[in-house]
Every structure is written in C-alpha cells, then in structure tokens.
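Q: Got a minute? One more chain.
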Amino acid sequence: MSDNKKKTNKVEIQEIHENAATISNTPASTKEAGQQPDDDVIKLLEAEQKAAENHDRFLRLAAEFENYKKRTARETADFRKFANEAMLKELLLVVDNLERAIESARAGEGSIQSLLQGVEMTRNEILKVFDKFGAVPIAAMGETFDPNFHQAVARETSKDHPENTVVKELQKGYMLHDRLLRPSMVIVSKPGSNAGENT
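A: Always. Here it is, folded:
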C-alpha cells in the first residue's frame, strides 16, 4: 500500500473518531440512526493500515535476507578461492630452495653428496609444511596390515615377519588431521620359507 493510501486511511479514521465524539455529545433526541459511528469501518481501516505496515516490514526483511545471501555467497567463493593461500606461501620457500639447488647443480658447483643433502633438506622443509597444516605420514613399515590405512599391492613370503605384516613401503601414505589423505602403498608378508618370492 502506498504512503498516500496510508495517510488517507489515517485521516478517515481520525474523521470517524471525531464524528463519533460529536454524536456522543449530542442529546439523544437529536441523534439519528445514520449518525452512529460504524465500528466495523473503523476496525477495517485500522486493519488495512496495520496490514500495510506489516507488508512494508516484510519487504524490508526480504530485501535484507536477499542481500545477506549474496554477501554469504561472495564470502564462500572467496574462501574457496584463497583457502590454500597460507600453505602455498610456505611452499614457495621450498620451491626457492629447489631452484637454487638446480642452478647450483647446473653450474657444476659442489658434489653429488652436497646435492643429495640439499634435496634431503628440502624434503624436510616440505614435511614441516605438511605437519603445520595437519598432514602427517602414516606408519607402515613393520606394522600389521590395516586396510583402513594401507593399500596392499603384493604379498611376499617371509620367515622373518608374522603374516600380514608390512615388509615394504612403495609409497608413503598421509593423514590430514583425522581423515585419510592417501593410503600407504605396501607389500604384505605371507607365511613361507622362500623370502623374496612374490605372488
């Protein structure tokens, strides 16, 4: 309902109340049936005014909720886009070290041993970044095979290990907090006397 309509309703209600007051002060002999205030009309106009106010309030709330949804969608999109920013910043330092090691090897500086040490140091830095963000390696070697954390790709007879023991780790597995990020790829022992026989 428009503001003009609401103002008109208020004026009409006020006029009806004024007429009702005038009629109530008039002697009974002069009151005519047609001069009695109509309570139903007053209630109707008041109800229309209240409905208009509620409608305006509803429109404002609807607009506010729509703005909230759009803002939340933008914030969610930004979070997804930049969620890994902190980790990538940490890994940039590791990449810098790798690039320096590569340039050093290309220039013929240092020995193979020093290059190996540099690679090991870089790996350790990566593992520190993993640990900082909750990614930790899964224990596998010498552990009892657990299908929840290990992926067996072969079985190998062994007289030195109990059955279903991890005897080789082909690829390290990782946990991300309490969720499996990647299972360990392993070879599991089976009973037998011919160690090293794969089946």
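A: Residues 23-36, 194-199 have pLDDT under 50 and may be disordered.
Q: Perfect, thanks.
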